[in-house]
Amino acid sequence: MTTLLTVARLPLRRAIRDVRYVDPVLYGRSRGVVRRVYREVERDFGMLAPPVALHSPAPGLLVAVWELLRATLLVGGETTRAQREAVAAAVSRANQCPYCVEVHDASREQLGGPADVPVENDELLAVRGTFEYLNRMVTVFLPESPLPPAAPEPVRRTALRMLGSAADRPVEPCPVGRSGTELLADVADVADVVLGARLAAAVRGAVYAALARPPGLGDELPADPALHLAVLVAVAPWRVTPEVVGRVAGGDELVVALAAAGAARAAAAVTPLGGSGRAAG
């Protein structure tokens, strides 16, 4: 399967062309920190994962999200990779993110892991927080499946087995241990830097106000296009449309940062992450 992944590396790199609303940096045009992260993603995850690469218009966010995913899903500790993949798939199923369900169920099955794993320690809570974040971003920026919709079922099964085989790859431990809380907060902090102090403060206030309300947004969404986008990503990412994104002025980096700010704060709010780290506030 490793040979198959190597053969498929170029087509997998092209999959980031499926990203909506923003133009991610293509592998062949990547330089500096973006090229370094892309190489690490291929080395440790087995492929250039579009849910990571979609952050590349904001390179600092790309780094923070990759560190979050790598530390919580790929690097082992008290739990097995199969258990962590099971949690990733379960959270994605609860969030109705079929793209992530396909990828992480395939990895779980490749590893022979159970479908139902209790989320009862800090490592698995950190995986949950990661996918509360990533599910929101994937729902906004990616299609419903990592595979073409017209692909015949035998081709889909083979492709998913190939994707799942990446879960067998050994991953070196992170050089410095960080809690899931700290890593998720890093994503929110980097998004705030891109937004600037005034807009970041407005986004925080709007997102927390929306999270405090019961379901049913009605006319309570902010009129400001930037706040509108961040709040929707936090509480109803499936409602993001080209019109919503098109009203945001400022380019791809700002769009990705607004989405990341909303998603990170929602993920922190709905996940009781353990440890002594700070919240994504």
Automatic annotation (TrEMBL):
Instruction: Check the record and name the Pfam families matching this protein.
Output: CMD
| Domain named Carboxymuconolactone decarboxylase-like: residues | 66-104
The protein here is known as Carboxymuconolactone decarboxylase family protein
Highest taxon listed in the record's lineage = Bacteria
Name the InterPro entries on file. Answer: AhpD-like, AhpD_core, CMD-like
Q: Do you know which SUPFAM superfamilies this protein is assigned to?
A: AhpD-like (SSF69118)
To which species is this protein native?
Actinomycetospora atypica
